[in-house]
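Figure 3 (text version): structure tokens given as input.
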């Protein structure tokens, strides 16, 4: 009888702790859809990048206001590119070669349920949805110092590339939980990852565009990497990764950009 009571108490304690943890984070407190933010703007809405007329969604998370789409503003190569139009990579002997990489376009069309029938159309649709890939380096490469003129001008007016501390604040607001900034839309994710994603409570709408490393593209539909304005050292800057976990990482070659409001 005593053993039975003991196990019942343990079970009740576990249930209580689990409920307490679930109740500890509330989207309506951290990233409410209704109401206004500290800028006097609706917590969620849209704005226009006057440079090219593109409209972007935004969302409020904690005290921050974030773009809820990946940046699409075009800079000349090697500072930005769309997948399927032109890809450059560093060879092991040090040279850089540029070719049109179309290896993923058939998979992209299938996952996006695209009506496109040719590679040009698929590449354009993918870029319009998932945004461009960017390098913020002096020479547009993988190593070196950040090009501060590019960092300071790449986002729309009134917005900027987030630094390491701003990304950390973002992570703390969502308690470093992937499910709070992802959707479980099976048409966009590999099946093995679907169970890890949630209902995108904060409206951030993470897009798993993958990223480019020295030898080519990696982790498409499996991970997101976002640029920061903070350097680790003279060679690398931080990037912010969202996949099976949320974390800061060292820089990769080219990645997505999400801007945060000034």
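Below: residues designed for each position.
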């Amino acid at each position: 009888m005593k053993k039975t009571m003991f196990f019942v108490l343990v079970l009740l304690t576990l249930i209580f702790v689990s409920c307490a943890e679930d109740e500890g984070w509330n989207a309506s407190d951290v990233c409410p859809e209704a109401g206004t933010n500290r800028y006097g703007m609706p917590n969620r809405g849209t704005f226009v990048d006057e440079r090219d007329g593109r409209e972007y969604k935004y969302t409020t998370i904690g005290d921050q206001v974030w773009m809820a789409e990946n940046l699409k503003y075009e800079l000349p190569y090697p500072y930005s590119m769309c997948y399927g139009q032109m890809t450059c990579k560093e060879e092991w002997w040090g040279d850089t070669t540029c070719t049109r990489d179309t290896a993923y376009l058939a998979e992209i069309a299938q996952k996006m349920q695209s009506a496109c029938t040719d590679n040009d159309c698929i590449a354009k649709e993918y870029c319009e949805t998932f945004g461009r890939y960017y390098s913020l380096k002096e020479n547009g490469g993988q190593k070196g110092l950040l090009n501060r003129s590019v960092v300071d001008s790449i986002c729309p007016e009134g917005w900027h590339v987030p630094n390491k501390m701003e990304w950390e604040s973002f992570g703390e607001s969502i308690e470093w939980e992937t499910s709070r900034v992802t959707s479980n839309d099976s048409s966009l994710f590999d099946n093995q990852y679907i169970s890890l994603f949630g209902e995108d409570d904060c409206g951030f709408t993470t897009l798993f565009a993958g990223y480019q490393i020295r030898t080519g593209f990696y982790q498409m539909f499996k991970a997101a990497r976002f640029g920061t304005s903070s350097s680790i050292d003279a060679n690398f800057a931080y990037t912010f990764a969202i996949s099976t976990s949320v974390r800061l990482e060292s820089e990769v070659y080219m990645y997505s950009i999400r801007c945060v409001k000034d």
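Residues 1-22 have pLDDT under 50 and may be disordered.
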